[in-house]
Design goal:
The chain has helices spanning about 1-20, 35-55, 60-65, 70-75, 100, 110-120, 140-145, 220, 225-230, 230-255, 275-280, 290, 345-350, and strands spanning about 75-80, 85-95, 125-135, 150-155, 165-175, 175-185, 190-200, 200-210, 265-270, 285, 295, 310-315, 320-325, 335-340. About 35% of the residues lie in helices and about 25% in strands. It folds into 2 domains: about 1-75, no CATH class; about 75-350, 4-Layer Sandwich (Deoxyribonuclease I, Chain A). A hairpin with a 7-residue loop joins strand 4 and strand 5 (about 165-175). The chain contains 13 helices and 14 strands. It is globular and about 70 Å long. Helix 1 runs antiparallel to helix 2 (about 35-55) and helix 1 packs parallel to helix 3. The chain has about 350 residues and is α+β, with helices and mostly antiparallel strands. The protein has a 6-stranded mixed beta sheet with strand order 4-5-3-2-14-13. A 6-stranded mixed beta sheet has the order 6-7-8-9-12-10. Strands 1-11 form a two-stranded antiparallel sheet.
């Protein structure tokens, strides 16, 4: 028992501090922290056993649980939603608006996903895997979602060219866009952009990101057998993605630190909460799921349903009222997430002219 408890304690401590190690510095380090929930559970079980046995050795799982307590809050929350109106924000990986599914159909048919996004009447919308087709009115996403001018829009391609059709990221806002920019892209599928929005007397910066994907083919994610059969290649792909995200999140974090305005960061992070990616951002911004959500908040709509890889982070000067994962909306392989912020702290932060 002493050997078992000691080994579990040692591995737990290594895991708990592993999220602070960049995968760029230590190969495969970014894959190890996914075991954190498992070892937290093991420590709880060992604690119960040692209490029943009345062994002093119970101090080790107690210390391990205390060290890993922060990971419980990023896994499961039970906040009470606050009433009231405020600044509504939604992030959605729209999976190209199911373009592959609809492109063989009548081009005059508008997919329901456009209607659903428009009907939400959200103040700020960040879309990843955004697909714009300027040649077909029924798939002109900027016009369809923008309500023919009711929204301001900034869209960036992650491809080399931005032609009549392009793939990338977009932010729709009811508030004027006074500045915009792109942080990085890999000219393939992923990237990061930002806009500065004029909201009453203040300006906020909104980031929309789609960090490096796990790069596992969709047909493998549709069934667990596909992952098992190709586990070695899957492992290598996962590690390449982790390393790429570490580089991207360092650039992102530095940009946020230098922002002249309070920031809201939303998007598809393609990484679990027990990661260098998540805790790098968490060290400078707060997370809406942790402070206003309820339950586990899973956002992935595939066989690996237990993943929470989409997030909305925010500057401490803001206060979230509510956060929801809209699991009833299944147009994409991700569920949309939505948060509402109390505007008073932001307004009070800036003195009246």
């Amino acid at each position: 028992m002493r050997f078992l408890v000691s080994v579990v304690f040692f591995v737990s401590v290594v895991l708990f501090f592993g999220v602070n190690i960049s995968p760029e510095q230590l190969s495969y380090a970014g894959l190890v922290p996914v075991l954190i929930p498992v070892f937290l559970l093991i420590n709880f079980i060992l604690l119960i056993i040692l209490i029943l046995l009345k062994r002093k050795l119970l101090v080790l799982p107690i210390v391990a649980i205390l060290l890993g307590w922060r990971f419980i809050g990023v896994t499961l929350t039970w906040n009470t939603p606050a009433d009231g109106e405020g600044l509504s924000v939604m992030s959605y990986n729209a999976h190209m608006f199911s373009y592959e599914k609809y492109k063989a159909d009548d081009p005059k048919v508008t997919p329901n996903i456009y209607n659903w996004i428009r009907e939400q009447n959200t103040d700020i919308i960040g879309i990843q895997e955004f697909y714009q087709d300027n040649t077909t009115p029924s798939r002109n996403a900027i016009k369809l979602i923008g309500k023919e001018g009711n929204y301001h829009c900034s869209a960036h391609s992650v491809e080399e060219r931005k032609g009549k059709r392009f793939f990338g990221l977009a932010i729709f806002s009811k508030y004027p866009i006074i500045n915009e920019g792109k942080l990085f892209d890999n000219r393939k599928t992923n990237g990061a952009m930002f806009v500065d929005l004029k909201i009453q007397r203040d300006t906020i910066r909104v980031y929309n990101v789609h960090l490096e994907s796990m790069s596992i083919p969709a047909d493998q994610l549709d069934n667990i057998d596909g992952i098992k059969e190709n586990y070695r290649e899957t492992w290598r792909r996962l590690n390449r993605g982790v390393v790429s995200r570490a580089s991207q999140v360092d650039v992102l974090a530095e940009h946020i630190k230098n922002s002249p305005h309070p920031s809201i960061l939303m998007g598809d992070f393609n990484d679990v909460p027990y990661s260098y990616t998540y805790f790098t951002i968490r060290s400078i911004l707060k997370n809406t799921f942790e402070n206003a959500g309820k339950g586990f908040g899973f956002t992935f709509n595939k066989v690996l349903f237990f993943l929470r890889i989409d997030n909305i982070f925010y500057h401490p000067s803001l206060r979230p009222l509510r956060f929801n994962t809209l699991r009833e909306v299944d147009y994409s392989d991700h569920y949309p997430i939505k948060a509402v912020f109390d505007m008073d702290p932001l307004i009070d932060r800036v003195p009246a002219p």
